[in-house]
């Protein structure tokens, strides 16, 4: 029972709660998961990787850079064996491992480190889910761990990891950026012995990037995505965080507490440390998508300076002194603290497995799609952007979609036009006529649904509390 001391219990409780948080976010199934599964299924079945779009009728035959092909194969393989429950569990564990690696970089374990990880997890949680980005989060955490604790032998692990990363997700560009950031840090901190190995590793990592099905195209693809105007305009996670929403309150606390701890700490931050926190904070303020990367950097810095403040005030002696063997009430409390989050985690997974259809209907028009299939409604169809992936999974190849989550396939001009139709602004009818749309499936409370109810060319053939289907008369 001596092993159940509070210092041993805290990390287990901490990462059990991180797992619960990851599951909580992941069961709200990401809309893009469905077309990822369909793509993975096709890659496995055909043993070929697509280079042109075949899921939409609006961009059929256009270039599709399938940069997540290996992630999609992995996701489909997991799905075939374990279903959605396995995907939620495994991707939640991936998130836990990424933050555990960050915890290992923190000083003041378990106390200061736990505070920092709780804030990092809470700030990053809006991005958690069953999505390839979680593999980028894990690889970024591994990269940072290798770069932070510089070792000329271990640094070369960056190369095979880059080869894996470039086939998993376009976030591989972050890996190159991380090497570049640590190269700048080495210069700022005058760690001249690190400069040459980092520069060589950056060149070698860049050299293996073309070793993917899209070849040299992967060099330009991440830049095109980052600079796309429609991304920030219409996709929330590419926009700046809105601090009026409580969702981003943990980010604000992490951001402010990190800089406050650096300012109040008796340990003076090094120039390179300040640089890394500032540049990643700028990324997080520019785009929600970059919040987890800032968290990976901010958590160890926050823990380091919180612990320095604690040591200056003598609190560390209280926290690190000899701990008596827990017995009686203390032992009971420790056991409850240990078991409660584990039970909660198992309960959440079981509830998802038992009510999978209910979770599926949270963000997908399940009943409406079943009606569309049963009635064999005519195509082409116009659909809401966020439902495109689910429609691909359920309807392809009998139906092709108007638009889906692969925003890069459609381009800024088309994406903007599709959103204008959805919002019922301008000449919203013209694209529907141009593409010969016969069926529309959208939310029942948006501008387009109101406009179609008042248009004699269209009749309402199905409606529930989530979706409405219109058919051209």
In brief, what are we looking at here?
This protein is mostly helical and 473 residues long. It is built from 21 helices and four strands.
Describe what this molecule looks like in 3D.
The structure is a single chain. By secondary structure, this protein is mainly α. It folds into two domains: 2-30 and 65-320, no CATH class; 364-472. It has helices at residues 6-26, 33-46, 69-104, 111-124, 133-148, 158-168, 172-188, 192-208, 217-226, 229-234, 249-264, 271-286, 291-312, 315-320, 329-354, 356-363, 366-375, 388-395, 407-423, 429-434, 447-453; strands spanning 381-383, 439-443, 458-463, 467-472. Strand 3 and strand 4 (467-472) form a beta hairpin. Helix 1 (6-26) packs parallel to helix 15 (329-354), helix 2 crosses helix 3 (69-104) and helix 12 (271-286) packs across helix 13. It is globular. The mean pLDDT is 91.
């Amino acid at each position: 029972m001596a092993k159940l001391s509070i210092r041993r219990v805290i990390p287990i409780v901490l990462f059990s709660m991180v797992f619960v948080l990851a599951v909580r976010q992941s069961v709200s199934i990401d809309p893009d998961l469905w077309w990822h599964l369909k793509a993975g299924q096709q890659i496995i079945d055909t043993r070929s990787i697509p280079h042109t779009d075949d899921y939409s009728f609006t961009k059929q035959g256009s270039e599709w850079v399938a940069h997540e092909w290996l992630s999609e194969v992995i996701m489909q393989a997991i799905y075939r064996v374990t279903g959605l429950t396995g995907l939620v569990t495994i991707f939640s564990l991936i998130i836990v491992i990424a933050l555990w690696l960050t915890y290992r970089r923190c000083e003041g374990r378990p106390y200061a480190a736990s505070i920092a990880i709780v804030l990092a997890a809470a700030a990053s949680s809006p991005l958690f889910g069953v999505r390839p980005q979680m593999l980028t989060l894990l690889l970024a955490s591994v990269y940072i761990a290798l770069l932070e604790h510089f070792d000329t032998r271990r640094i070369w692990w960056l190369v095979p990891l880059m080869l894996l990363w470039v086939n998993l997700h376009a976030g591989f560009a972050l890996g190159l950026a991380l090497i570049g950031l640590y190269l700048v840090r080495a210069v700022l901190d005058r760690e001249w012995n690190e400069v040459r190995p980092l520069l060589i590793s950056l060149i070698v990592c860049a050299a293996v990037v073309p070793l993917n099905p899209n070849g040299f195209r992967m060099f330009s693809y991440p830049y095109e995505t980052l600079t796309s105007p429609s991304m920030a305009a219409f996709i929330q996670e590419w926009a700046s965080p809105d601090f009026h929403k409580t969702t981003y309150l943990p980010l604000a606390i992490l951001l402010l507490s990190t800089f406050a701890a650096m300012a109040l700490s008796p340990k003076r931050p090094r120039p390179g440390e300040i640089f890394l926190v500032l540049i990643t904070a700028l990324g997080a303020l520019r785009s929600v998508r970059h919040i987890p990367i800032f968290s990976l950097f901010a958590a160890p810095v926050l823990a380091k300076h919180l612990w320095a403040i604690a040591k200056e005030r003598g609190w560390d002696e209280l926290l690190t002194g000899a701990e008596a063997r827990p017995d009686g009430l203390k032992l009971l409390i420790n056991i409850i603290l240990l078991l409660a989050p584990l039970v909660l985690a198992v309960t959440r997974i079981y509830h998802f497995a038992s009510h999978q259809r209910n979770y599926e209907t949270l963000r997908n028009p399940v009943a409406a799609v079943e009606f569309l299939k049963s009635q064999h409604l005519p195509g082409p169809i116009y659909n809401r952007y966020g439902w495109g992936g689910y429609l691909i999974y359920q309807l392809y190849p009998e139906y092709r979609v108007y638009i889906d989550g692969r925003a890069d396939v459609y381009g800024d001009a088309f994406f903007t036009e599709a959103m204008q139709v959805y919002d019922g602004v301008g000449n919203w009818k013209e694209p529907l006529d141009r593409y010969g749309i016969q069926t529309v499936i959208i939310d029942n409370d948006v501008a387009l649904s109101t406009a179609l109810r008042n248009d004699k060319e269209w009749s309402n053939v199905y409606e529930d509390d989530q979706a409405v289907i219109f058919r051209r008369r």
